[in-house]
Queue: 4 jobs
Job 1
Amino acid sequence: GMPPLVPPRKDTVKMQPINGTVRFEDVEFAYTPEKPVLHGISFLAEPGTVTALVGSSGSGKSTMISLLCAFHTPTKGRVLVDEVDLATVDLHTFRSQLGVVLQDSFLFDGTIRENILFSRPDASEEQFLFACRTARVDEFAERFPEAYDTIVGERGVKLSGGQRQRLSIARALLAEPRILILDEATSSLDSESEAMIQAGLNQLMQGRTTFVIAHRLSTIRRADQILVVEQGLIVEHGNH
C-alpha cells in the first residue's frame, strides 16, 4: 500500500506566494532502506516551462511527483521551490499553491460545484463559471436538471472519465496554482473530448511551472525539457 505520509513537522516556515522555480538537488529516496527508488536526481524547472517526465511504470516518475508535492521527504538531497527546501516548509501553505490533475481524478460525494470549489472555497460565482467554461464542464453540467448542484460520485450521477478529467481541470484552474502537475496516462477519452481537454490544459499551463507525466508524443514534442527516467535515474535530459 501507500507508504506513511510525512508526520507534521515542528518549527516549519510558511511558504510565501511562490514564483515556481523547482530544483531537485541530488535527490535520493527509498521507501525502505534496502530498496532505493531514486538515485541522485538533479534538474531545474523554471516558471512558464513544461517539463515532461517519460519512463516506464515503476521507473521513479511518480515518486518524483510525490516528493514535489511533499508527500515524502528525500532520504538524501533536497527539493527546493524558489530556493526554499520543502523539508522545512509548512505543507499546507505550499500545497495550496500546487495544482494536480491526476489520471483518476479525486471526486467526493457532493455537487459538481462543491467538487470544483474544493480548491478555493472563497471563489466568486464569476470565477467559478469562468473555470467551468474554460475546462468545458459547462457543456455537460448545464444539461443536468440540477446543473451545478447535481450530486456526483458514489451516490450521485456517475461521470465519464472525460467528464471527471474536465472537472479536475476546472478545480485546478480555479486554484490558480504556480506549479501544475498533470498525469496524462492514456485517458479513456475519444479524440473529440481529447482536443477540448487539451485546449483547457493549454490555458491552465500558461505562465506556470508545469510537470507532465507524458505518454503522448504531442506533449513530449511541445515540452521545454524532457526527463527520461529509468530505474530511478535521469538517463536523458533535453528537448525533443
Job 2
Amino acid sequence: MRKSLEGIASLIDAHPHARRLLVGYSGGLDSHVLLHGLAMQRQRWPDRTLEAWYVDHGLQAASAAWGEHCAHICHILHVSFRALKIDARPASGESPEAAARRARYAAFAAELGPDAALLVAHHRDDQAETLLLQLLRGAGPHGLAAMPAAARLSHGWLLRPLLDVDRAELLAYARAHGLRWIEDASNADLGFDRNYLRHQVLPLLRERWPAANRTLARSAQRCAETAAWLDAEAAADLADAATERSDCLALPALQALSEQRQRNLLRFWLRRLNLPIPDALQLQQILHDALHAAIDRNPCIRWSGAEVRRYRDALYAMPPSAAHDASHTHIWRPTATGWPPLELPGVGWLRMEETVGAGLRAEALAGRGLLVRFRRGGERFRPVGRLHSQELKKLLQEAGIPPWERNRLPLLYLPSSPTLPHQGGESDPLLAVVGLGIAADHAAKPCESSWQPVLQSPSAAGSGIV
C-alpha cells in the first residue's frame, strides 16, 4: 500500500490550488482507508486542511447511526467532520442507485469552492465494474472511459486517488491498522446491477484472468484517450456551428459535416449544456427530423430530461419547459437599494442591472413600480430604432425569436395609476419586451442613468438581455 499512498500524494500535489481536501466519507471500508491514509500523511501538506463529509441519503434506518460512527472516527483521527442530509428519492423511471448518486454529487457540488477538492474512494474494482456496466449499456468511448482520476466538479475538483488500487489492497491495509468500518447490507443485494457484477461476474473473470482489473482499467484509459480526441474534433466543429447562444447551432454548418461528425458534435454540444445524451435511436431522429425538415417546419424531438427543436436555420437544445401561466400579472416594486429579483414561475428570474446610457431611463422609473405581463395578443411596440409602432408578433418574428420562447418573454408596463392595479389597463405604456428591446420613448440617452432588465432562465442557456 506504500506505493498507493505515494499515488495519493502525487494526485494531490498535482492540484496545488486545492487548499481544502474534502473526503467523501461513508464509513465503509474504501472511504475509511482513504481518510485514514490522508490523515496519516497530513504533515506533507501543512498548508492544507483535511475534512470529512458524510452524506445521509435518508434511505435507510441506520443512516443516522452511521453518521454518528463517522463522526466518532473523525474525532479519533482529529479530522473536521460534517454531515449533509439530502433527499435521494428517485424520480419517475430513475434507478435508486442513480438517484442517490445524482443527489450526492449535487450536494457536494453546491458546497465546493475553487479552493476545494473532493476526494472519493473509487478503486480499480469499481473501475472494472463501471466499464462492464457501460459496455452492457452499449456506451461509446465516453462511457467506456469510465471514471477519470481528476475532473472538475462545480467550482472545484473531484479526485479519485485510489483508481490504481485493488480492493484487496484496501482490505489488507484496513486489517493491518485495525480499522473498524460499516458494512452496508445493501451492498450484497444482487438486485442491483453493480452488485451482481461485483459478486457474481467479476470473481469468475478473475479466476480465469487474474489481471482482469488491470486489463479493464487499461481499456478504460484507452477509451478516455479516444474520447479526448473526439472531443477535440467536436470542439473544432462546434466553433464553426456556434451562434451567439450556447444552446443554438447553425444548421448549415452542421449539415455540411459527415453523419459521424454530426453525431459527435451533437453529443459534445449536449454534454456542454449539461443535458442528457439521447440514445442511438433518438439521435438518429434528430438527424432525420430536424436536420432535413423543411424551412417552415419546427420539429421537436424529446427524450427524458431534454429536447431539441428546429426553427428556421438553427437547432436549439433545452431542458423540458416548466409549466407557465401566461395570463398572470406580476407586480414589481423597487426598494431603496434598487430592484429585487422577481421570480417568474416557469420562466426564470427578472433582474434590473444599474447602468448608464442603456436600458430604461432611471428618471422615468423613480419611485414607480412595474407590471410584468406576457403576450395576450394584439400588443403594439416601438423599440429603439423604429419610427412607428408595429404588432409585437411581427417584431418577434423579424427578430428570429423562436416561437416557443415568445409567450415567455416578460413585457414591462408602467401603470398609469400609482396604486399598481393587479391587471393594468390598455393605456399603460409598454416600456420593454425583455429579450427584444426597449421602447424608444423610454430608452436612456448616452450618459443618462438607467436600468437594464435581464431575464435569467432556469437553464441559464436561454437568458435574454434587452
Job 3
Amino acid sequence: MKRPVPVVLTAVLLGLLAAFQLLIVVLMVITGVVVLHKGLPGSGPNAPLPPSFLPGLFFGMSVFAAAIAVWLIFTLIGLVRMRLWARYSVLVIAGLMAAFGGLLMVSSFAIPFLAPAMPTAANQPTVDPHVMRGMFFVFGAIYALVTAIGVALLVYFNQATTRALFLLNTPVNLDPPNTSTGRVRPTAVTVISWIYLVSGPLCLVYLFLPFPAFFLGFVLYGTAAHALYLFFGGLVFAIGYGLLRLHNWARLTVFALFAICPIQMVMFLTPWGRHQFQAYMDAANAFNEHLLGAQAVQPNIAMSPGAIVFFCVLGMAGYGVVLWLLHRHRAAFTPAPPAPPMPASVEPVAG
C-alpha cells in the first residue's frame, strides 16, 4: 500500500524527535557519571542536598527521555505499517505539541511587553534589553513552528480520508466498543485522555525533587509538598483513565477542577498572594542556585500583576478548550441505547 506523503513526513519527524531524545539520554548519562565522580560547585558536605541526589536526578531524566524515545519509535513503526493505534498516538503527540507549544509561544511573545525592565541580579552583568527581547522573540518563533506542526498533524490525521486509510489495515471488529457506555470514543476525548495519562506521571517526578508546592496561596514544603504532588498526579492519571473509558465522573471532575483557576487568579491579585508566591519562588531559586552552582539567580520577570493575570487567563483559555470539547461530546458519556431486537426467523413450510 502506497503511503501518503504527509504520513511519510510525519514518520521522518518522529524519527528526528526520537534521535533528539536519545541524544538527551546520552548527555544526561554522561553528566550523571561526571557529577558522580567529580561533583559540582557547592556540592560539599554542607550542601542542602545529599551528594547522590544530582547524579540520581540526571539518571532519572535520562530514563524519562528514553521512555519518550521508545514511545516515538513505536509510533513511527506503527505509522509505517499504517496501524490505527499509531494514528491515535500521533494525535496525542500532536495535541501535546500544539498545547504546550502554543502556551510557550504566546508567553515568549508577551513577556517582553509584560516585563519591559528585564531586571537582572545585582552581582551579575546587565543584559541588553534589546538582546533579551530578541531572544524571547526567537524562542517564540520556534514555539510557533512547533505549534503549527502540531495543529497541522491534528488536522490531517483527523480527516475522514486519513481515517479511512488507517481503517483499511484494521481487521473488522463487530464487538461493541470497549467503553463504559458502549459508545465509540470520540477522537478529541481520546487525545485529551492520553494527555492526562501522560501528565499524571509527570507530577510524580516532583516526589523525588526538593521543590516546594504552591496551592491557593499556601506554600508547602517537604512531606506536605510531596503529598500534594502525589495527590494531583494520581488524580490526573485517574481522570485520564476515566475519560478513556468514558466514565462521566471523569468528565465532571475536569469541570470541577476548573474552579481552581479563577480562585488562583484572584489570589494572585492580593498582596498576601503575591507575597506567598514570592516566598515560593525564593525557595525554588534556592534549589536552582545549588543545582547550577550559581551564587544568584535572575529575578522572576513575571511577578508583576499584569503578567500574573495574563498567564492565568492564558491557562484558563487552554483549559476552556478542553471543557468545550468535553461538553461537545457529552453524549458519548451516556449509556448507549440497547440494540434493537433481531427479527424472528420464519420457519419454512414443508411441502
Job 4
Amino acid sequence: ALDEKVKMQIEILLNEIVKSIKNREERRNRYLLPLKCLFCYAEKSGLKDIMKMEKAQEQEYSLMLKREYGNPCSSPKKFILFCRKVLFLESKNINWEANRLNISSERYSRSNAVESFSFLDIHFYENRQGLQRYLKYLLTVTSLNLGTIRIHHTYIKEFLSFLEDCGKVITDIDRNSMEEYLKSLSMSRITAQSYSNKLQVISAFLHYLHVTDYIGEFSNPIPLYYKK
C-alpha cells in the first residue's frame, strides 16, 4: 500500500502539473507519465518520503521509468528535481532533514545560480546529519551569501567523503584522522591560498560541531598545516 505521506505528495505534484504545464504533450510525457511511474515505484518499494529519496532509490526509479515508458519521458533526474522543488516550496516549514535542500527564489538574486544543496553523496548518517546541522546554521544564523555557503558545502562534503572512504564518521574524529586528511590534501594540486581556504572552512565546521556537542574535544592539528 502507498504510504499516506507519499500519497499526499503525489497529489500536490499532480495539482501543480495540471495547473502549471499547459502543453498537453509535454505535460503527459515529461510529467504525468513520470509521476505515474513514481506512484508505482513508491507503492512497490515502500518509499516513505519523496524528499528523502537516496541515490540508489533514484537509480531504481530511473530504470523503472525507462523500462516502462522508454524515450518519450524526459530525464528522471530533472523530474525528481522538479518534484523536490514543488514539495519544498509547498511546505510551510523548511524540511532540514531532506536529502536535497532547495532554496526558494526569495533567498537569492537573479544573478545567483544556487538553487539547492545536496547531501546524497554523504552516506553515513552521522556525517550527513552533521553537515545538515551546519548548513542550517549557515543559512539561518550567519550573514554569508549563498555563493559562499555553496563553497563551504562543497569543501565539507569533500572532507566527509574522505572520511567515509576511510570508513570513518565525524563523531569519531581524532588527531590521526585529521592528519591523514591534511596530508592527502597537501598532495593535491591546488594553490596555497585554496589549500588554506579549505582548512579554514573545515576548521569552522569542526568548531561548530564541538560547541554544539556533536563531537568531543580533540587535539586538532589544522593550525599547524596552514600555508602562506
